[in-house]
Amino acid sequence: MCLRISFVFSMVSSKKNVHIxxxxxxxxxxxxxxxxxxxxxxxxxxxxxxxVDKKTGFCALNDxxxxxxxxxxxxxxxxxxxxxxxxxxxxxxxxxEQVHAEVIVLIADASNLKRxxxxxxxxxxxxxxxxxxxxxxxxxRKNGTEIDIAGLxxxxxxxxxPVNPRKNKGIMQLKKTLVSTAKQNQISAQRxxxxxxxxxxxxxxxxxxxxxxxxxxxxxxYLINHENFPLPATMQQLIEQTEVDTKFNPTKTQAEEILxxxxxxxxxxxxxxxxxxxxxxxxxxEKLDNLLLHRxxxxxxxxxxxxxxxxxxxxxxxYPMDAxxxxxxxxSGWLNNILPSAWGSDLLVNGLVAGLNGIxxxxxxxxxxxxxxxxxxxxxxxxxxxFLSDKLMRKVGxxxxxxxxxxxxxxxxxxxxxxxxxxxxxxxxxxxxxxTPLMSCSARLPVYTILIALVVPSKYYLGFLSxxxxxxxxxxxxxxxxxxxxxxxxxxxIKLKEKSYxxxxxxxxxxxxxxxxxxxxxxxxxxxxxxxxxxxxxISLLLWFLSSFGPPxxxxxxxxKYAAIERTSLRGMKQSLSVQKEYKSEKxxxxxxxxxxxxxxxxxxPLGYDWKIGIALITSFAxxxxxxxxxxxxxxxxxxxxxxxxxxxxxxxxxxxxxxYTLPAALSLMVFYVFAMQCMSTLAVVKRETRTxxxxxxxxxxxxxxxxAMSLLVYHLF
Length: 718
Known about the structure:
The relative contact order is 0.06. Helix 14 packs antiparallel against helix 15 (343-360), helix 21 runs antiparallel to helix 30 and helix 24 (552-568) runs antiparallel to helix 25. The protein has a domain at 15-234: P-loop containing nucleotide triphosphate hydrolases (Rossmann fold, 3-Layer(aba) Sandwich).
């Protein structure tokens, strides 16, 4: 048995591994092919120095060869403008010191072949081992386009394999071709797609003398972008001197190259592709776009879709979230019953277990949110949403791609901020990150619900418009309106100078890829648990410590007081339980958290709050919905008639006997939660996405200041 295991292990370890890069235009089917090749055998990280996802996966090509597959960001050409395009460019130019690809798989969309061939021809001219995976052949045929695959392969000089990742067609043939290419039985085209040497003959000859292994076309890119390559200073100086000596003009060279390529592509298309007359066909996509992009109906449909998306996140996530809460409540109760009464037990139950609950309870929302967003992306409607909203967004410094992160913020700011990665412009992405937490996330919903029920009467106007519902909607709209205002102000403060291009391809409509949806949901849940989850757990443990311990002199005094009461008490069990609650409440008042609450009371008193609300404001920094749980603990001392939390809060009074939750105070508190940055996990994700603590600090300061000012205004207005 041991010999057999050793033999199998040696067989596996002896397999050769080849690194394969997947590249192609956006919306060409690259992600679908990556998922088809790797399945769930994937991992997600970040490319060094940029907040761009690096997807890697593993695939067995045959019994002898395995592959590490790298899914590079989509790009339209080898002249990058965005951060994600630079990532793909450096890998293709072998200028990335950490990612090296031995074989390139070019994904080309058969239904948009002319546009895709520009990038394909550029990569082919780099003279690396290349295989073209031709996707969406079925869509091209439906549109009346016929492609001579063999003729196209001959013209390009590289293998062309038609594939359909959705239906797993062509995958085995692609693997066989990759094996033969990796073994160098099939290598890249020997001839140039265009006459690259004629673009800058003297400059290219000089560069080839310095770098003999470069292709002519790679030499042109060394002349244009050598400053971005990890080359020694002496090499950089030689290239710069070559530019001067040969009077190399990068702009003119690039323009001539593109013209030559499209001229050659026209010939290739005429010889190998039969296309229908565009004036005689009316595609389904065009008909649907006439409705969905209509100046009136388009916005009505958009609002309806967003409303359904918004409602679905709440309704679909409710049951799994309740199940997680119930499971952790049962676990906590069971641990309390079997563990001895000690600080270690308290740390485990109220610190670690409660912290894990605070992490995992958000996972259903994150998975559902990204699942629904992936559905919108797969069907092609997401691009239409960005297109419709771009005009409004630009007026406040954003663009159309900022819409979905802001909408996602209604569910949770953490995954919403993660979705800003598809915004190319750095300033617009930063502005989106800064204002997205102003969207009222679902964690604020328990706070809104209980406070509205306390002070807003249950009235209906016109028989169906609920006053409480209108107040709730007003809170959500308040956050949205101020997000646009804040973005407008910050666009003048942030001095990043970068031109904004909203170039957006409207993909064809198609059925969603359910496997892709599932993989995306799992990936995003993993990222949240491993990244933001660590911060939430740390804060939960810190809050447990602050709530459980205090200055020894104060805590000993409370212990002595209640020890004396217990010795002299002759009351029954019910009264004894009440004394225990009073004891815990007084311990909380004298804990570090209680002292903090008392300390900030002078600052929050002008807003209509007391010290107990101050403690809730502190504890809810872990998660906003902690406010309700904190209130339940603080008011348990008044639970003499099994009152509900709402009843306890209604009867709560300050030291002077006045009610705590008046209409002005409750509205002030709701407005505070609309604006305040009370979510440490959001700050952690902002730090992760911006790679600095500067912007989380700016975000915390401006949101806290805005929350205080608006709450003060509301309290005195009402």
